[in-house]
Write a structure and sequence with these properties.
heterodimer, A: about 300 residues, mainly alpha, MetI-like fold, 12 helices, B: about 280 residues, 13 helices
């Protein structure tokens, strides 16, 4: 039966078609794949190799294989732990801040009929403004003199403090500036995601609830928020990943100083490579950071899968 | 009932105005500072409307600080990068969405993998690659990395979009004997316009604002892009903030105009990025 002539011809035809399709597909993929191979795939393996060596940047010089020593160095490096702590605190503060304010603004925007687009546009401005510009802007706003806008506001208008604070010379206060920037820049983003999610809640749910005499607060508590849980989970993870990749504010506002006190993992990694020329150690740290970020995005995938199961 | 609703809406609008003010005040202060002379920058109390507004910062940016060159560099890098991303990504998306072949799943998996990869984590080996290919301190070196970094997300976006479009037109064209390339050029690309617009905006933003790679591989002033130039205007000892913000304004105005006129596509891109999983 299988050897009936018609079937063989059909089969033959299919095979040449598949072969031709494969060739066509790869021709279309080729230019893009070359870019990915040269600039992402190869560097990924190369970074692994570098991280296992005492890398010597001089061309032709020997870079002895030292196994996991660079990774062990990281675990014994106080500055690594400090930078990890700094990054984690930044992530915690800014993620919570962006979530709360983003959700609040989205909920308020849902309730008004006029000026929705206007407000949405305004809140989104920081999101589309370059990190370089907003970092320098916040450095300027948090200037230590009494003419710095934040100092002026706190001392002369609100009278919360009596003396101007030199925000950027000390780690704790520098993080106030960096964290505020992180929240300020990101609120519009989570707002947009929450607005999109609010659109997907079926109108009937609200109608039934208000017919049953549910109050505004009850509707929020028992319908809106539960329906938003998957989105909140997803946004949390996305923002956390983003927070762990934040580099420019540290680079431009404090340069990691004084004495590496305000370093994030990623800025520490960068300065190890391009200031101290410790490429091996820096690559090991890059792998550690990537592992952390991938761990977080694994969790994200679990949430999104549950999200689609719920509907 | 109705008055209650009006009152409630008014209260919410007032709260939104307060929130909007905190968003906008830093921008307003930046604009105002850009029009102040250096002596007026740290005046007490701070002035939102400059007493002696001046254009000297803008003039200084272009006249003595080579700003025109940096602006041109940014435009060259961004335009070439965005066009390359659109071309390469749409070709890849077409192959992935319309063809069955060995390795399809693997290649798409790779694309998704690099979409979630922290952008800066490969900077050391990328720097070595750029050095080997003699691309350090060139605009070409900036372009290639912009393309590689932004390609995965564009592929993801375009592939998803293509898969939602019925194949009938393309199948009719195949029967008429059209080649795969002409199907791609004359049918697929025009159909993908909305998704191409979204990808273009996201890629534009990525390339226009790119700072870390540019500040790592370029040295000479003639290869500086806007973000790097602005960061170097921040002096080692005293910063001429008026100049910094005049330059910043020039750099962000194209983005803001594009954002305000193409908001729909922006928002789509952001939401698509959020649900990429």
């Amino acid at each position: 039966m299988l050897s009936s002539p018609a079937f063989v011809i059909q089969d033959e035809k299919m095979r040449t078609k598949t072969a031709r399709d494969t060739l066509t597909a790869y021709l279309f993929l080729l230019p893009g794949l070359i870019m990915l191979m040269v600039w992402l795939v190869y560097p990924m393996f190369s970074a692994l190799n570098i991280s296992l060596r005492d890398w010597n940047i001089m061309p032709g010089a020997v870079s002895p294989f030292i196994g996991l020593k660079n990774y062990l160095t990281a675990f014994q490096d106080d500055f690594f732990w400090l930078s990890l702590k700094n990054t984690s605190v930044y992530a915690l503060v800014t993620v919570v801040g962006q979530l709360l304010f983003g959700l609040l603004v989205a909920l308020m925007l849902e309730k008004i009929t006029r000026g929705k687009v206007f407000f949405r546009t305004l809140f989104y401005l920081p999101v589309v403004t370059s990190w370089v510009v907003v970092s320098l802007l916040f450095k300027f706003l948090f200037n230590s003199s009494s003419a710095g806008l934040v100092n002026y506001f706190l001392v002369d208008i609100l009278h919360v403090i009596s003396q101007p604070v030199s925000w950027l010379t000390e780690a704790n206060t520098a993080f106030v500036a960096i964290d505020t920037l992180g929240i300020w820049k990101g609120v519009g983003f989570s707002m947009i995601i929450f607005l999109a999610a609010l659109q997907t809640i079926p109108e009937e749910l609200y109608q039934v609830a208000s017919m049953d005499g549910a109050s505004e607060g009850q509707i929020l508590r028992y319908i809106t928020l539960p329906m938003l849980v998957p989105t909140i989970a997803m946004v949390t993870v996305m923002l956390t990943i983003g927070a762990f990749q934040t580099y420019i504010p540290v680079a431009l506002i404090t340069k990691g100083g004084p004495l590496h006190r305000t370093e994030f993992v990623i800025s520490y990694m960068y300065s190890l490579a391009f200031n101290d020329l410790k490429f091996g150690y820096s690559s090991a740290m890059a792998y550690l950071l990537a592992a952390i970020v991938f761990g977080i995005s694994r969790i994200q995938m679990r949430f999104t899968r549950r999200d689609s199961a719920v509907g | 009932m109705k008055t209650k609703r009006i009152i409630r809406e008014t209260i919410i609008t007032i709260l939104l105005c307060v929130a909007a003010l905190t968003t906008v005040i830093p921008f307003l202060y930046m604009i105002s500072t850009a029009f102040k002379g250096q002596v007026f920058v740290f005046e007490v109390p701070p002035q939102f409307i400059p007493k002696n507004p001046t254009l000297q910062n803008f003039i200084a940016a272009f006249a003595s600080n080579n700003f025109g060159r940096y602006f041109l560099n940014s435009i060259i890098v961004t335009v070439i990068a965005v066009l390359s991303i659109l071309l390469l990504a749409s070709m890849m998306a077409y192959a992935l969405a319309r063809y069955q072949f060995v390795g399809r799943k693997f290649i798409y998996g790779l694309v998704i993998f690099f979409m979630t990869m922290p952008a800066m984590s490969l900077i050391v080996p990328q720097f070595i690659v750029a050095h080997t290919l003699q691309l350090t301190d060139t605009l070409a070196g900036l372009i290639v990395l912009d393309v590689a970094q932004n390609l995965p997300f564009a592929v993801f976006l375009l592939k998803g979009f293509l898969e939602d479009i019925p194949k009938e037109i393309e199948e009719a064209a195949i029967i008429d004997g059209a080649s795969p390339w002409s199907i791609y050029m004359h049918i697929v690309v025009p159909l993908c316009k909305p998704a191409l617009a979204t990808s273009a905006i996201i890629a534009f933003l990525g390339a226009w604002d790119e700072f870390v790679w540019a500040s790592t591989i370029t040295n000479s002033p003639q290869n500086r892009t806007l973000p790097v130039a602005i960061a170097t205007f921040q002096g080692v000892h005293t910063t001429n903030w008026g100049l910094v913000f005049a330059a910043s304004l020039i750099a962000i105005v194209p983005v803001l105009i594009m954002f305000i006129s193409l908001q729909k596509y922006f928002v789509k891109g952001m939401v698509a990025g959020a649900v990429k999983g």
